[in-house]
Records
---
Amino acid sequence: MNRHAPTRLWSASPLTRLALLVALVLSVWPLYWMVVIASRDTSAASQVPPPFLPGGNLGTNVRRALADESSHLLTGLGNSIVVSGTVTLAVVVISSLAGFAFARLRFAGRTGLLVVVLLTMMVPLQQIGIIPLYIAMVQLNWVNTMQAVILPFLVNGFGIFLMRQYTVQAVPNELIEAARMDGASTWRIYLSVVLPAVRPGIAVLALLTFMQNWNEFLWPLVVLQPDNPTVQVAIRGLSQSNHGQDYSMIFTGTLLSIVPLVVVFAAFGRQIVGGLMEGAVKA
Amino acid sequence: MTRVLRRTRAVALAAVLALVATATAACSNGDDGLDANGNIVLTVKVFGGAGFGYDNLVKQYEKDHKGIKVKYQIVTDDYDNEFRPQMLQWLEAGSGAGDVVGIEEQGVGQMMSLSDAWADLSQYGLNSRKKDYPSWKWELGHTGDGKLAGLGTDVGGMAMCYRTDLFKKAGLPTDRDKVSRMWKDWDGFTKAGEKFVASGVKSAFVDSPNQLYNTRMIQEAGKADGISYFDRHDKYVLGKNKAVRTAFDYIKTLNSKKIIGKYQNLSDEWKKAMQADGFATMACPAWMMGVIKDTSGKSNAGKWDVATVPGGSGNWGGSWLGVPAQSKHPEEAAKLASYLTSTSSQVTAFEKISAFPSSVKGQKDPKVAKLSDKYFNDAPTGKIIGDSVRNFKPVYFGELHSAVRAAVEDVLFGMVQGTYSPSEAWPKFVKAGQKVVDTSQ
Amino acid sequence: MATTAKVPPRGTLAARADLKASPYLFVSPYFLLFALFGLFPLGFTLWVSLYNWKLAGDKTYVGLHNYRFLLGDDGFWGAVTNTLGMFVMATVPQLVLALLLANALNRRMRGRLALRMGVLLPMVTSVVAVAIVFSQLFSHQYGMINWLLSLLGVDRIDWTAGKLPSWTAISAMVDWRWTGYNAIIYLAAMQTIPSDLYEAAALDGASPRRQFWHITVPQLKPVIVFTVFISTMGGLMLFAEPMMFGDGRLDGGSRGDFQTISLYIVQAFRERNNYGMAAAAAWLLFLLIMIVALVNYLLVNRVRGTK
């Protein structure tokens, strides 16, 4: 992964080790505490001093949270998988295509268009344009539909930028020239030369996009209804609804909302760290 | 590398599946208001910490009416900040409102101003329900141009809930008749608070400024001309209204004596305090008793009791059910609304969540009038609340009342919390409401 | 090329069309979507902002009234102050801590990967979950943080009362989620710094701390600018954290101490039914982002210039 000669590293001093330990504890603590409350009963959140060890009610609480009719947590989890998955797939395709074009194809207006992409990276247009987007969704009768939460997030300038950087690095011009000599069309080159080469980049982009959309809150909150939420809106509903006082259940909901991400992280954490580090340097 | 590759494939596959799922979901999400089996689906949207108490009624209705399915949704416990704005958005957007929806008293002015948004219930023969209601409750369910748009559910008869265990610790009487006598009027309430604070018991005496403020304000307004934030021409008159000022100053006085807890009602902190002995008394509209039961939970059963409210009478809250014009099955929805607001349904709801019937017959029903509540030390809640609404005079709530309320109560809470000094609080209070009026034009 | 015979005539019409058209086809999906969901809403926002616009019913042209109102409204200026204040409070410590953390992680020790994954863990949590958990931790009477403070003899702090406490609590949520992420990015960049720079410095007797400030930090400048840039976008759009911290309401506390511009916008159209004013506030937010982005851009140029 690291192509550079390894830097001679200082050995960590005891103080550094201690600082890292503190950082690790702080990083993990809120998550641990989430588990503690989620596995106890209702009163745990208002106890002083607070409880520090998990209880035995996690299973019950999970069942209660999933069965809670007013928060629609299960629907929320399903919807979020659909929305984040669809957006991720589409963004990967759109970005790798455009990234390839910007990196290795020559066409009039390339620089200008690339500047436009970079500019769009800076502005979260979905949030600025929330009012007309909502008005439009009302007109289209798309309020409370999945396409309403999917389509606006397909615009992702960062993805193009990232894929362009990856393509520049991973696909030398000679490779493309060679393929052209073999008579490959541009589309074929994209499929059989570019795509295989930029796979690590795609993995990073996919993970970041999935995570970003999993956490999207404002727009789904506005355009979806409480009975058909995404996961973030659902756990907000869980904390606001008639069970607003049941903290063990709310925390169980928050715990369930991160399970899919944590599973991915646990399975591919090494690659995520590696991919992120590699991606960061390229970006 | 290969692992990454395989994973990419898996992710892509999942996404494709997801895409297909979306497409099919979008298709089956037809908006004819029918489910897959051709049943008519009616969505009931309500609010409140304990909802409207319709769970069993809805099941019964489905059983009695083949071909009709009812989705009963409790959207949120916060009417002013959450349910009302959302409902407004759905009504204006032309979809999403549901088929039968709850309208709270403080928002009834705004909802009835949107005449086009509601189905005319008189078209479905529901003018016949007039005899069930006191005239004010019936009249308030009409739009500005006289359309019958809402059928009354409950009224918010007032009581005062208190914690016997904390009262005992503080050396206050615990027997509900003695307590009622102790705070026959508001001065008595103040004195009880002072005594409680002096005892050194750690809990706050009053839960939050907001609950008590509303109780007093509506009581004073009812005694006077029935006006609070807006006059009957919907002019913003909060700054000049005596009832409002009296209630505000009362909170200010109590606050200076440290009698009020630093909790905002319905907030997380408030709910936790309710579970953890955070406060000893709470103004209790009938429906609030359901909230207490739900929130403070089994571990606090028997610690709460119910006394009369200082000043005797009062009403806070109470609701209507309306049928949005956007409903695909307005006739069936109207029938369901009529069923849910019928006298017997109101009695059932009272038994379930303590929502006091607005139906005249319902109030006299022995199941209501004689009801005592185990959770509250067998307090005769039916009688206490019934007495409080007997002499009650209705208060007018303007179109923007609920929105103004949310804003000014922030200032009121800020005074107790310390973000506003007591001297600046009143002018800010008036200004906060004015700003809502200005920005809502 | 072993099979030169197979090379097709490169000048055929199809091949030329492919060469000419493919690039545009490849970038067109993005620009199509951008026009529909980026450019059009932006323009339409401007249009709506000039009206007294209700979702249903009349729309009356009011010119610049909405802008005049906002610029004269202390609530809106409060939201601007809060947004910028929380942005600075969240970003500066976050990036400094991330740098120090990256430097610490860039040492020889056992369990390095576990440590890296550990500090990255907060990033894979979900935003509302974090906000709910932290709101509990910062609870006035029942929160763990006030409990710890009380053990130290410090009075309980009402974290929702006043700008400083609420900004601190909300910044803590943001920092918790993103410090590890930025640290990993810095760490990656650190590993590309040529080792001879350090070796030369070590020969000159420079301490590790001196090396950090005189070699590592200057070498990381472009990456630091990049992270500042990313944090800016998140910071100026802050919505979920202050909303959940304020009990799910849009008012940002009893005095609006932590109402951000995003909360203000949503309050304007959701609670006041005033789409015109919300649109005007959105445009002012857009301008604010442009200004901050411009400052960032000048910063980048300056860094490039000095290199």
Note: The longest strand of chain B covers residues 150-163.
---
Amino acid sequence: MKFLQTPIHEIETAAELEKIINENENVMVCCGRMGPMCIPVYDLMEELEEERPNVKFFSMAFDSPEAGVIRNAPECRGFMGLPFTMYYKNGKVAHATSSIQNRQQVTSILDAKF
Amino acid sequence: MEEKFDVMIIGAGAAGLTAGIYSSRSKLNTVIINEGVVGGQMVLTEEVANYPGVESTKGYMLANTMKVQAKSFGCKIKSNVIINEYDFNGKEKKVVLDDGRIFKADAVILTPGGRPRSLNIPGEDKFKGTGISYCATCDGDFFTGKEVIVVGGGNSALEEAVALTNFATKVTIIHQFDHFQAFEHAVNEAKKNPKIDFIMESELREFIGEETLEKVTIEHLPTGKMSEMKIDGVFIFVGYLPNTESLKNIIPINERNEIIVDRDMKTELPGVFAAGDCIPKRYRQITTAVADGTIAALSAAEYLRG
């Protein structure tokens, strides 16, 4: 079931997330709600989708039980701000951020990690 | 790459999107160039209950409706860009983006909006998302059963402090003055809430912790006395700043960094208009931004058509 009204493809299950990160070299997943800290990141990802064909962009609903795989990830320990944004390289977590990020912050992570 | 338009709008908040709707509907070839997120401060508003004609909606939904409306009239929107250069002298106005793209137009409407003010003290960047938040609606539930500080003395600070008592065991409001700027009803609501404490005439000086925020340093302003307070989270609501830094030497700006306009939203530069939260005014609401954007677009159309 989809919860997020964004053009970014929403991952609905932990199994789907696992499949995506194993089948794609570079993956960014924004796990959030339809709130003011999350929407700017979804908007940014929508634009980066056109500019960065080497990266796959996805969203995931923070309140879905299936998103526990992100909420409870060791890389998200201490996170207390939405969204939780994960960057996966070859199936492994390469970086994770908490709270809103601007274009410069996101692209610098993409440049450094991917 | 270079593109030429009739009207170029800088900023895609309520004022910019409205200007885009009016301008493109007037059959003027219009582009909105936006450095932030489409919707501006609107998307930071959880619930909009006082926008006439709309019973109650989410800020992001109202913003999205305005965006779709502007696009339906042919308005182009380029968002999340970085503008490196402005040139508003002469008949043809120009902006250059950091990726080399150039946009030109015969009229410009500046609607850069504002942004939440930060404290700019040590530790603020480090603990953003790990103890520091600017949105109680978004992050309040992470602080269930914890103690938090709210910084500020306006309506947002006091209303969000009351909202946070639904999650936190204790909320301490820290404010730099001995009185609040918020409306009386907001102050009364906060004062009668048993979970809320007040520290007046004080400011935060530092955020301290290892992986997450653990404590803050507070200065009592009249005495200069510094103290530390253990805390789980800090919510910052200390007003808004106009996004006009990059326009300072390009357009007349007042001492509060607001763009000076006349009643038709004209600046001193011919063909350059401004609207929304970036201009001097007392009330900053979606409705007032929409009104400003309308006037600016109609003035720009009149300028272009002589």
Note: Residues 162 and 190 of chain B are 6 Å apart (CA to CA).
